[in-house]
Amino acid sequence: MKIRYALPALAAAAALVLTGCTNNAAEESGGDAPESSSIKPDEAAVALLPAELRDAGTLVIGTDAEYPPNEYKNDKGEPIGWGVDLANAVAAKLGLTPEWEILGFDAIIPRIQEGVVNLGSSSFTDTVERQKSVDFVNFLNAGSLWVAPAGSDVNPDDACGLTIAVQATTVQHTDELPRRDQECKDAGKPGIEIMPFDGQPEVTNAVINGMADAFSADLPVSGDAVAKTGGQLESVGEVFDAAPYGFATEKGSDVTKAVQAALQSLIDDGTYLEILKGAGIESGALTEATINAGEN
Length: 296
Known about the structure:
By secondary structure, the chain is of the alpha/beta class. It contains 11 helices and 11 strands. Pfam families: SBP_bac_3 (PF00497).
């Protein structure tokens, strides 16, 4: 799960605002997502919006765009990926133009609390702790999965003494791998060397280049790495620590209710499943747009 905590370097990073940025999902992100321009607003969802947001006509969406295939950048620096496609579709259902703001991950929730960002779309894992700060409109059941060189004998449950790459400040970095490392040491075995990188591409390359024995990431990210490395990598072990992804919104706000209604409309008309199928992650699809379903 993509649970990140504040890093000074990220917090200090300047934001890049992409006003009115929309992405050509099918062309840019490799999926078959529908164009947002073909999605008609859902009047019931639109009616739930705060008047000032409805009048403004734009939905400011925060993302860190460093987590392919969910959210990442094209060669123009614009956010793309299936998570971007889905957020754009939500905006279309609300009759709003998406305005993307690329931020350090740790800056997104504070900006939502400040009212600067309306929606956080950055593979947020919905957790009880985060629910104290924002609401989450849940859109996917996800989990973690390890990836190693094809033909290796790496076993996530017996990884003592191995070097494991991970994207910095994800839950795999802050929770999972430290827990596994401590279990090894408690059993009198060598610990796990945790090798963090700022972006997932660097994590994947570390395994391909032999710097690390394996990496741990969210299921969609691991699956994408396996699919795009020409047989060099394979998944190992089973999916674990399942938890929901959610769009982050202001706590207790009408925006939360409007986004939930918009997402439910996308589920009901088939657009939602079309986006997930294009990314090959339909196994995590929901039939109901829930709020704050995370229990851990």
